[in-house]
Amino acid sequence: MTELDDLDHAIITALEQDGRRAFREIARSLGVSEGTVRARFRRLEEAGVLKIAAFADPGRFRAGRLALLFLRVAPEHHEAVVAALCARSEVSYVSTMLGRLDVFAQVLVADDNELWTFLQREVRPLEGVLETEAVLEVAVHKLWFNGRPPAAAAPRPEGAAEG
């Protein structure tokens, strides 16, 4: 795991707001040099902590279904199921979960029929898949990835006075 300090988090937050924001502008807003921001960005990117990507809101597409898949998987087949999902072009995100279900995948398909076909032909037949649940996502209301809640949402330590 890469240790992140406050400056790393501030750079990530700035890029979350606008992934195309110039390093010079970020540096100016944080009171550091452009070279510092560039070096931090490169380190975070090389460590796999940060990746700049475009996010399309599926609720704004005319045609398209974004489905959230939750899978219960036999432990001995976990890695193979994850690899199979990662290899599919319909799948944009895969993660391992703790709890009743084991794997989460985000899937974008054209319509309900394509979703049904994908589930029936590609996901449910995978060896080790014990249970599937699909949920349709219709709108995105908030999205952040910087690894800690924004300052406004961060819980105050017990007994701390309000500011």
Give an overview of the whole structure.
The structure is a single chain. With 163 residues, the chain is of the alpha+beta class. The protein has a four-stranded antiparallel sheet with strand order 2-3-1-4. α2 packs across α3 (34-46). The protein contains five helices and four strands, in the order αααβαββαβ. It has helices at 6-17, 23-30, 34-46, 78-86, 112-123, and strands at 65-73, 91-96, 103-109, 129-137. Mean pLDDT is 85; it is low at 152-163. β2 (91-96) and β3 (103-109) form a beta hairpin. Helix content is 33%, strand content 19%. The longest helix is centred in the N-terminal third of the chain and has 13 residues, at 34-46.
Low-confidence parts, pLDDT < 50 over ≥5 residues?
152-163
- Name the average pLDDT: 85
- Could you estimate the helical fraction of the residues in percent? 25-40%
Largest sheet, strands/sense/barrel: 4 strands, antiparallel
How many strands appear in the DSSP assignment? 4
Tell me the fraction of residues in β-strands, as a range: 15-25%
Order of helices and strands: HHHEHEEHE
How many helical elements? 5
Observed structural traits:
163 residues; alpha+beta; four-stranded antiparallel sheet; 5 helices; disordered C terminus
In brief, what are we looking at here?
Helix content is about 35%, strand content about 20%. By secondary structure, the chain is α+β, with helices and mostly antiparallel strands.
